[in-house]
Design a protein that fits this description.
It holds the Pfam family DUF6037. It is a single chain. The protein has about 180 residues and is α+β, with helices and mostly antiparallel strands. It folds into 2 domains: about 120 residues, no CATH class; about 45 residues, no CATH class. It has 6 helices and 6 strands. Helix 5 packs antiparallel against helix 6. The protein is about 35% helix and about 25% strand. The strands form 2 sheets. Strands 1-2-3-4 form a 4-stranded antiparallel β-sheet, with helices on one face. The chain has a two-stranded antiparallel ribbon with strand order 5-6. Strand 3 and strand 4 form a beta hairpin. It starts with a helix and ends in a 6-residue tail after the last strand.
Length: about 180
Amino acid sequence: MSGLEKLGKSMQAQNLDIQKFRFKTGAVEFDCLFSMRGDYELSLTTRGANPSFFLFPITKTFQMATYLKGANSKLVNVLRTHGLSMKGFSSTQFFKDLDKIVPSVAHTNNVPTTSEILQLRHDMEERDRPFFDTWIPWTTGGPSAKNKKKTLLLLGPSALIYSEKNNASSRWSSVEPDR
């Protein structure tokens, strides 16, 4: 995806690792989140009362798998529900259209807040807890894979390194801590 590649290179040049943008096709609008924190990922979340969530792994060379597993039929259903004719629908064309609108230049004002990330990433644990509270040290065991993923996506790579080095989980709160 050449659009993601341009955005990714701009992000790297500015030392940014996550960007949000919107994509509209027919009557459906998506909030898009491109993350280079850990594995590269592109998420699409439909806007509206009943959002649908799609997550696509992106390679380090900014390619996306052409086989979408079960996402293709779900995507078709979402687009059909939102009034887009499915006659001649092509997932390849859908992603070409998406790639055309990807911003080619990253901006700091397109770096989402932790609350925005949780709103857009339906695969995250404890989405109702957007506020970092504290670190919980472990004497045995350690942070769960889900906690590590949330730490990486919301706080960034240095926080994940800290978590692993100190064998500590990030604890999250539904209310902003009074510090």
